[in-house]
């Protein structure tokens, strides 16, 4: 399994959800997001929301976390 997987390409109008290894860096997450699902904005995906209430432990892989990414 890849370290970072896009699980919901669209969350609202400016967010996306990824499932990643708990130790994945913001830079790793943003690189995958911008490569695999470009946002279409001039800045691209630019922020990983790690303190968001939507941050949860993955139901299927407890060593992974779900993060929201913002453009």
Write a structural description.
The protein has one helix spanning about 25-35; strands at about 5-10, 15-20, 45-50, 55, 65-70. The protein is an alpha+beta fold and about 70 residues long. It has one domain (about 5-70). The protein is globular.
Give the SSE map.
Layout: E1 4-11, E2 15-21, H1 26-36, E3 47-49, E4 56-57, E5 64-70
Summarize the structure.
With 71 residues, the chain is α+β, with helices and mostly antiparallel strands. The chain contains one helix and five strands; from the N terminus they run ββαβββ.
Structural class: alpha+beta
Q: What are the low-pLDDT stretches, counting only 5+ consecutive residues below 50?
A: none
Strand and helix order? EEHEEE
What portion of residues belong to β-strands?
35-45%
How many independent structural domains?
1
Q: What attributes does this structure have?
A:
single chain, five-stranded antiparallel sheet, 1 helix
């Amino acid at each position: 399994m890849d370290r970072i997987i896009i699980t919901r390409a669209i969350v609202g109008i400016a967010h996306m959800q990824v499932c990643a290894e708990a130790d994945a860096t913001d830079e790793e997450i943003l690189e995958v997001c911008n490569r695999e699902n470009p946002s279409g904005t001039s800045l691209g995906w630019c922020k990983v929301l790690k303190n968001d209430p939507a941050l949860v432990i993955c139901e299927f892989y407890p060593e992974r976390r779900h993060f929201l990414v913002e453009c």
